């Protein structure tokens, strides 16, 4: 991928990159590779990690800026994709919100990914959506107090997950009516789901709070698939997007080698 085209800053997602080392060592590895900014999925096994776990995580971020963090999304390996609309797990969502805000106070993180949650057997989808609105309202209020945003992400590879296109997520945003709840546009997920990536710049640009990339098919680094990632990012920047671009791909054959597409001079932000 050439250097020209756009000048958007990159942020390394350390829940998927640098998995060659333990999670608490990944920020140092990213810093060594030239990154100044990082993001994570939920970096703990439970909604309420022990205090020393949180302390260790925050300490591991020395030398980098935490730009984004997911709320607790359940057992991702087992196919769970968030608690925002999960009836019966309200306490876990509320608890992870408190933990995330505590981390934000200590790190300056100001963006939280609220994975919507799968449709549940035996539950009315409308009731799940009502719960999602209530949870997003509460989280948006809390985030607004520290100048933070929430982002909603369409996902691929999860049949029961109801947000598959940018329009799906924007419909939730419209219903919610909160300025600090925005679209997370992951070019990989949207492309795999057959969405129109050009519409991100022409139709949805004012709703985008964050962008992530991986090539498709395969979900590996740019240049391994068929997406014109550089072109799409240039269109987004030209349309007014000025935020970070999350590098969220499965690296091949390893993280450092996979980063050959991105010169070191573009991995940091002065």
From TrEMBL:
InterPro entries: HyI-like, Sugar_Epim/Isomerase, Xyl_isomerase-like_sf, Xyl_isomerase-like_TIM-brl. The keyword Cell inner membrane does not apply. Residues 28-264 form the Xylose isomerase-like TIM barrel domain. Keywords: Isomerase. The keyword Isomerase applies. Pfam families: AP_endonuc_2 (PF01261). Belongs to the hyi family. This is TIM barrel protein.
